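**Protein fold record**
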Amino acid sequence: MSTDLFLHADGPRCIYVLDDDPDICRLVSSTLREFGFEVVECHNAATLRRLLLARVPDLCIVDLGLPDADGMDVVRDLQARFACGVMVLTGRGYLSDRVMGLELGADDYVVKPFEPRELVARVRSILRRRDKPHNTQTQMPVRSQLAEFGGWHFRVDSNTLSSPGGQEWTLSAGESRMLLQFLQRPNRILDREQLCGDRDLSALDRGVDVRVSRLRRKLESDSQQPKTIRTVYGAGYLLAAEVRWL
């Protein structure tokens, strides 16, 4: 396997790998190092938290089965407090864990056992997605911090969604990014790559569909027959609503 550096302006991208299995941790780390990433291994959540106090990496790869913490709590904490990507590492049989990880805001997941090149491709995809918001050509400006659509309100600065009846939810980072894409382009078909902000999104990545489903559960009276976020088969999704920025 040839070295293929994935560098940032400030040097190699830094990745923390959290897994209590030393063999898995070593395999993930050695694979990423071959492609030019700087990797730090952690075998428990306490070590990761200490490392985060000193330096926030570009990406954390988190195994959900940890000896000293709930992996879901670690994912939630990373999304809430740190400006880094999150990839979930999980066993093949735990579909519910993968879905929950994405709903909490993880950027992607990899199933053990994994193919080294797939791991590297997914890591690169996350990092490219997270870099793109800094490119003003690919992002529409947010004109206000509060959007109104069909009686619903979404406050951008706090990721808060409010129903016409006054019920409130705090959306995950991933859900908020997706809803903002819809609100900035209402009544237009958006494909999966537009919704994720990444033209290099793997076709295997189901994070888009999971987040659409999660938003529908809040926005639709019947999520099986959606009227607000509509599926345009073979093309993508569409927010069928007029949007006002207040």
